[in-house]
Specification:
- There is one protein chain.
- The protein has about 220 residues and is mainly β.
- The chain is about 0% helix and about 75% strand.
- The protein contains no helices and eleven strands.
- Strands 1, 2, 3, 4, 5, 6, 7, 8, 9, 10 and 11 form an eleven-stranded antiparallel beta sheet that branches.
- The radius of gyration is 23 Å and the shape is elongated.
- The two termini are about 25 Å apart.
Length: about 220
């Protein structure tokens, strides 16, 4: 079941003027799918109350979003104006699916503060980040396919573990994580949705790009 996740604004730049918005739309955003998996190998170095865990691993994530309902502003002049006439729409207008995968190196530090409380500091560096995405615009019957290679991804975080009682295995887990991925550039191709004799064609005059900066907080119980 799709989960409502906010709103989406779509800006198109199809004019011959750099940076000039030609079309705009706003929709409700839904998360259709978010699947991720990662595996790593760690080596443990114990130093009194501290443990150092250098690691090497590989990560994969697949996310799909859809934009529903809302309105379009597609002025005949080809140049968008915030006061342009709005055309209200219903149903799924846009879907966006992204796959990201990369190897990474990192170091975790476990710090045992007491028999019931410990902290883990997390760092990792992802390199040669690969991103593939498909951006489908159903109202325009167009599909855009992007391919980006050679990115970098940095992660730092801290996780606390608190045992609720001396005789229980129940743990309270809490913490935060910050992720930063500078802009990764690549190529883009486009094609018509539906019956076609050819697949997406590379758009030589355009390119693709993706960046990320996010902060995540979490709280959970482990039994």
């Amino acid at each position: 079941m799709a989960i409502k996740s906010g709103s989406l604004q779509d800006f198109d730049f199809s004019t011959s003027y750099d940076g000039v918005i030609s079309q705009y739309s706003q929709h409700e955003l839904y998360l259709d799918k978010d699947f991720s998996i990662a595996g790593n190998i760690k080596y443990v170095v114990n130093l009194a109350s501290l443990s150092l865990l250098p690691k090497v691993g590989y990560a994969y994530r697949n996310v799909k979003l859809s934009a529903q309902d809302g309105y379009l502003q597609y002025p005949e002049s080809g140049v968008w104006d915030p006061d342009a006439e709005k055309t209200y729409v219903q149903g799924t207008l846009i879907s966006y699916e992204q796959v990201i995968y990369y190897p990474y190196l990192g170091l975790d530090i476990n710090w045992i503060l007491s028999c019931r409380f410990a902290l883990t500091f997390i760092t990792s560096y992802g390199f040669n980040v690969c991103i593939d995405s498909v951006d489908s615009h159903y109202s325009r019957a167009l599909r855009f396919c992007d391919s980006m290679r050679g990115g970098h991804r940095f992660t730092i975080g801290v996780c606390g573990q608190f045992k609720l009682s001396y005789f229980s295995r129940t743990l309270l887990l809490f913490g935060c994580e910050y992720i930063n991925m500078p802009l990764v550039r690549g190529t883009t191709s486009s094609g018509v949705i539906g019956v076609s004799d050819t697949g997406p064609q590379i758009d030589k005059g355009y390119g693709s790009g993706c960046s990320e900066s996010s902060l995540r907080f979490f709280l959970s119980l482990s039994y």
